[in-house]
Design a protein that fits this description.
The chain has about 350 residues and is mostly helical. Helices cover about 45% and strands about 5% of the residues.
Length: about 350
């Protein structure tokens, strides 16, 4: 709850919320970097679409949405800001302003490309979930008319994702390039112009599975994602979970890197988790259980050998790549690990008597 309210407290008048608030390299009275840049008129990426999802998670745990009553206007302005600066009306998708702090740091579909040119499948898939969460918040605070508005926005975005991001030939969801238009030169290009709205950026990354997490994929699409891609050992499937980039991509790389962190193949626990949840959404319980077991064994072996956990792992060997002591989404699996340990101790104790 405090995390949600902290970010809302930094919201600017136009609805902009920074994705990070830190005093790193700042003086005591200096504004956070992203706030300062935005006030200077430089549009950078804003808070990723997880604010309302987290608010719903908190409300579910506390059993009440009442703590959000005084923040509805701020949440509305948060979505208005996304629509103002990042929404591409031509194709109906949201774009990244740049490649800074996009979640998947060096996603080849975004990293090093022109500003406002990529509609990321990661961004848009999670935005669908965020809109549904906003609708849930509004419904539970007696604002049903606005709840319907956001539910419809989510449906419109799902349709745009299906139209622009799904490739029926590859049977995979891609990020797309939105910088597509007819460019005239003197008397050239005066005939049939560019009528397509986007071009697929055909790089197969784990983000192509996020539509299963956000329940955008159809049942048939989910089946293809699982059988053709997720279970393919030459692309995403490893003994330790899901590769963050398909193994047969030219950018596949397992080097240790930070700022940007390396998402060009290493196994990340958040990737395993998102794919795990997506599998459950479509009834793939056995596949989900297998992925869960791989994840627990990966972290268990790391903890046994090194006494700690790491940020990301080599999908070929299971060896940690960098950042020992990393505690973030790994904590979810650590909790599961210790629960299994307690059960094991209990069973051993019972067998002695």
């Amino acid at each position: 709850m405090g995390n949600v309210l902290n970010f809302l407290s930094f919201q600017l008048v136009d609805g902009y919320i920074p994705m990070i608030v830190s005093k790193y390299n700042q003086g005591e009275n200096e504004e956070p970097y992203l706030i300062k840049k935005h006030k200077d008129g430089v549009i950078l990426n804003m808070h990723k679409p997880f604010l309302c999802q987290q608010a719903c998670l908190v409300s579910g745990l506390t059993g009440s949405f009442s703590w959000l009553e005084g923040y509805i206007e701020k949440l509305e302005r948060y979505f208005e800001c996304y629509d103002r600066y990042y929404y591409n009306e031509n194709c109906g998708l949201y774009v990244w302003a740049d490649d800074v702090m996009i979640g998947m740091d060096n996603d080849p579909a975004v990293f090093g490309r022109s500003r406002f040119s990529t509609a990321g499948i990661y961004l848009n898939s999670f935005m669908v979930k965020e809109m549904h969460s906003m609708a849930k918040i509004l419904k539970n605070t007696a604002r049903n008319d606005r709840a319907d508005y956001y539910a419809q926005k989510a449906e419109n975005l799902k349709a745009a994702i299906q139209n622009e991001c799904y490739d029926p030939r590859d049977k995979f969801f891609y990020s797309v390039d939105v910088d597509v238009k007819t460019r005239s030169y003197d008397w050239f290009h005066k005939g049939l112009g560019v009528f397509w709205k986007t071009l697929p950026i055909k790089i197969q990354a784990w983000t192509g599975f996020v539509p299963m997490y956000s329940e955008i994929a159809s049942g048939e699409q989910a089946e293809c994602l699982v059988s053709m891609h997720l279970e393919n050992k030459n692309t995403f499937c490893s003994d330790f979970g899901v590769r963050s980039l398909a193994k047969d991509e030219k950018m596949y790389n397992l080097e240790a890197s930070i700022n940007p962190s390396n998402w060009l193949g290493p196994v990340w626990l958040v990737v395993n988790y998102v794919v795990f949840r997506g599998l459950l959404n479509y009834g793939y319980k056995e596949e989900a259980a297998e992925l869960c077991n791989k994840t627990l064994l990966l972290l268990g072996e790391d903890y046994k050998k090194t006494g700690t956990l790491h940020e990301y792992y080599n999908p070929e060997t299971g060896q940690p790549i960098m950042n020992p002591g990393f505690l973030n989404w790994n904590m979810l699996q650590l909790t599961c690990f210790w629960k299994l340990m307690k059960v094991s101790v209990y069973l051993i104790t019972c067998s002695q008597y």
